Structure prediction request, 637 residues.
Amino acid sequence: MKRFNKNLLKGAVVAALTLGTSAAVLADSLTFSGWGGAQQDAERKAYLQPAAKALGIVIKEDNMDGLAAVRAQVMSGKPKWDVVELGSTECAQAQQEGLVEPLDYSVIDATHVDKNVVSSHWIASHAYATVVAWAEGSDAPVAKNWQQFFDPQVKGARALYRQPWLTMEAALLGDGVAAKDLYPLDVERAIKVLSRIKPQVVNWWSAGADSAQLLRSREVDFLAIWNGRVNEVKASGDAVDYSFDGALLSHDCLIVPKGSANKALAMKLIAEIIKPQSQATLATLIPYSPVNAQAYELPMITQELAARLPTSPQNIDKVVSVSPQWWVENQEAVRQRFALFLAN
Amino acid sequence: MSGAGSGALNARELHSAQQRERWYLMGSGLPALLLVLLTFVLPIGWLFWLSLFDANGQLTIANYTRLLEPIYVLTFVQTFKISIIVTITCVLIGYPYAYFMIKGPRWLANLAMGLLLVSLWTSLLVRTYAWLIILQRRGIANDLLMSLGITDAPLALVHNLTGTVIGMVHIMLPFMILPLFAAMKSIDPIYNQAAAAFGASPSRAFRDVFLPLSLPGLAAGATLVFVITLGFYVTPALLGGGKVQMISMRIESDVSMYANWGAASSLGVVLLVATLFMLFIVKKSAGLGRRGE
Prediction:
């Protein structure tokens, strides 16, 4: 009797264990790695949680700080991330370095996404714009577009981004280069334009939060800043404004690291993220702009919200797209040139 | 005969006991040695090893030849320039401060020490942002200068070399003052009294007695400040406004730009070698090493 009970117990434990493992196998899981903070909080609400439900999977999350982290993961041979969100030129570079899996467009519907930001190995996840923003009611003259921004006669404290991308495009637009003629960038001309106003550049900011603080504290009278950041300052009641005219459109983008253990699921998750519903929901939570044009047909994007988004039908013709491809091919030399310009 | 023999035996035994004890004492340092080996010597060796390879794992010196490009040369020059300015400023401010802590009234000296420690214990990031707020265009410093009529328009105190040096000096000051304080504290006041008894004026006694005796502390502090300053990242990145380039910032940018660690490793290696070389020169030229022993 005792013996029988013991065996029964053993059997029950084994059965429970087997059931437990098979249940875990059934509930598939994958790991999404993003930039963390408010952005990832919004992404979780807008599409990670809904996608987990829709696909019947568990989505684990992690944070990273850019391409170098992905590189380290892929080099280890067993990346623990399945979908990673990178910034601007990093996806194109990851593709060039062979760090990523090709995307399966029979699963991901990219019909209504701008072809410039859909590549064989990556796809844009949302857009943001670099705009000219200025303080209202300032005694100092302010610039309200790139032409005025790069005019040394407009005497005012200004700030620019501490990277050559976006900054050089802005300089060339300010010097009268037409949007369609931007690429290939005329690097020396851009440096010349930047040199003209260099003494008036108070700060070359590197983090988005710093740029907002420069404007808020009136450390500068006008600056190049991301639309989400200046919108935050404006929404808090501060007397500042900005314009989408000539704004530079960049994108965050999604990749699947080479060797990911859950490739098929990763494709499905990306498909969910690109859906109009996901894209529109994200825009209601954080001022990142949809890449799927169909998102603007959804009622949750009100007229008022659309006015604040650079990819909306009323703004899309004013903005200028940045070319990640050009930057990947030229960044090494241009970054050195720009660093030398800054340090001199 | 037998007495001498046993004496020799005794000496041998004593000697071997001594030897055992010495080994035992040295053995107690073994865990620390292992730790240094594992966490410092090995990684440095690995860093050096990595710097010799390109992205495809081919042996190359490209990571070093690249450092001859103007941007790297300029960055090295600027890094050493800033470190020297910060070190000299720290000496000029730190020496009188430490002297005051030794000779000043007890309660004021305690206060001075307390303030120094509070500053040391405050997060580097907090102190850096505090300087940003104090020194900015509409900050306290400019308000004060303008209300006193010293200047009409706000001065550019931050987002440049000035702000960077101010912030770095503030952060490095405790590393200058504490070793100096320890060195000064160990100088017996009787030396000064002896000098006075032989007719030396207070300033003569300071110059010929106190100052030389405090030099090892000064050298220790200056070395600490100089070496730590060479690797500074956060403060110049935040207070320099993008106009100040230090090697740590180039390392960061190279890590993100190049597909291999080698490009950034070579910068680390050159910085390390340059630092060791500088320290060697300082030690030789000042002859402080012997004095410190």
Observations:
- The longest strand of chain A covers residues 240-255.
- Confidence is low (pLDDT under 50) at residues 11-25 of chain A.
- Residues 195 and 201 of chain A are 10 Å apart (CA to CA).
